[in-house]
Design a protein that fits this description.
Layout lengths: L2 H32 L14 H32 L4 H10 L5 H34 L7 H30 L8 H28 L2 E3 L3 H14 L6 E4 L10 E4 L6 E5 H6 L2 H16 L2 H23 L3 H6 L7 H16 L3 H22 L2 H14 L8 H7 L5 H10 L1
Parallel strand pairs: 2-4
Antiparallel strand pairs: 1-2, 3-4
């Protein structure tokens, strides 16, 4: 195999990935437009035509803008690789004659910085135009900048030392053929540490978390946790409303550092029985070991990915085919990050299928431990308030959606 073969294959992969996503998004837009005029029969007495059409318009607008993002990102990937962008960046940093590891850190940091700057206009438009237009955005520009600076500082403080360690391990590969196993073990341990630290250390940097103090609701939740044999490090209310009017609830952390978190917007819109049902659904993910299964799945995928990287990392023709002249650990990581999403997009339906199966199982758990009708009414309210479309394209939904479509999910709950 030659560098020309790699370049041709990469171009074909880039085009195939782009065309597939373009086709799916156009299907989604066309299907939602075709069903915009009327509310699905199953929701006719629950969702107004106005709310249904708002959800349709919101989803269509996001998808159309997503097509612009997709086109721009495809061009950017091409420029970074076969366009010579990475090679120019590498040559610039190498001119300072730093050690290989520090050269790698500055190249990766430069790549990340430029990529982040290119993404800012799209992020601003989504937040301050699309979300604003449909009444969801509550984020100020000052807060947007503050969040971005905080994220950058966290990445510098936590990410750079870990990147240094990974590059150091990779540079030991000449004398150690199993270096990739050490990298994988380090990455997995680092990921678990971040999951454990996130609830108490990182999340409070961005949001305020207040212990739940409503006696009646707290009593319901305590009883539910006891029935399900679940322990946590507390139930907290997050001030999500300062950024968005979207409502949500989630678990975070693991081991003895698990937290149950409700957005304040969720508490404002749901009754106590409905909140209990939503929490029971989230508990279902833990009790059915979905979190563990996802962690194991991602660990195995990352292990396979690093094994593949270990096989390819010293193949000069691969670098040359992707627009890079010099073989290096850091450039191998960047190229891997750029190419992997182009391949993984074709595996998306498998992960979506697994996720939807988990959602059905969590719904069944909730129905067994609370009243299924309360979960149904809660979901309908959330679909309405978050402007989730009730009529997604079946093919698009099967490919992307981590949750079953609203009509399918509600029908499933009604049968339990």
């Amino acid at each position: 195999m030659t560098a020309n073969d790699i370049q041709t294959g990469f171009i074909l992969l880039l085009i195939a990935s782009y065309v597939l996503q373009l086709w799916l998004s156009r299907r989604q837009i066309k299907h939602i437009q075709a069903h915009r005029a009327s509310v699905p029969a199953a929701f006719a007495d629950k969702i107004s035509l106005e709310a249904h059409q708002k959800a349709a318009d919101y989803t269509i607008t996001r998808n159309k803008f997503g097509l612009l993002e997709l086109s721009a990102s495809t061009v950017v990937i091409a420029i970074w690789t076969i366009g010579g962008g990475l090679q120019l960046l590498d040559e610039f940093i190498r001119s300072f004659e730093l050690t290989p590891i520090y050269t790698g850190i500055f190249v990766i940091a430069g790549f990340s910085l430029i990529s982040g700057l290119l993404d800012i206009p799209f992020s601003l438009y989504k937040t301050f135009v699309i979300e604003e237009k449909f009444g969801f955005n509550r984020l100020t520009f000052k807060m947007y900048i503050s969040d971005m600076l905080k994220q950058t500082i966290i990445m510098l403080v936590i990410g750079l030392p870990f990147l240094y360690f990974v590059l150091w391990l990779m540079d030991l590969r000449d004398g150690n053929p199993y270096w990739w196993l050490y990298v994988w073990g380090s990455w997995f341990g680092f990921s678990m540490l971040m999951m454990w630290l996130y609830p108490a250390v990182i999340a409070p940097i961005f949001n305020k978390f207040t212990p739940l103090d409503e006696p009646e609701l707290k009593s319901k939740i305590t009883q539910l946790l006891e029935r399900c044999g679940f322990t946590s490090n507390g139930v907290f209310i997050m001030d999500g409303s300062k950024r968005s009017s979207h409502g949500n609830a989630y678990f975070t952390g693991f081991g003895n550092n698990k937290r149950i978190v409700f957005f304040d917007t969720l508490l404002d819109s749901l009754k106590h029985d409905e909140i209990e049902a939503v929490l029971a659904h989230e508990l279902g993910h833990f009790k059915r070991n979905h979190i563990k299964k996802r962690i194991i799945t991602m660990a195995l995928i990352s292990l396979a990915g690093l094994a593949l990287l270990a096989w390819l990392i010293d193949q000069r023709f691969i670098y040359e085919g992707l627009g890079v002249k010099e073989v290096s650990s850091y450039m191998a990581l960047i190229l891997f990050m750029l190419v992997t999403p182009l391949i993984s997009i074709f595996l998306t339906p498998l992960f979506s299928l697994m996720s939807r199966k988990h959602e059905f199982e969590a719904d069944e758990f909730a129905a067994a431990n609370t009243n299924a009708n309360n979960l149904i009414t809660a979901l309908v309210k959330l679909y309405k308030e978050n402007s989730n479309t009730l009529t997604p394209d079946p093919v698009y939904s099967a490919f992307y959606d981590s949750h079953p479509p609203a009509p399918v999910r509600i029908a499933h709950l009604a049968k339990i």
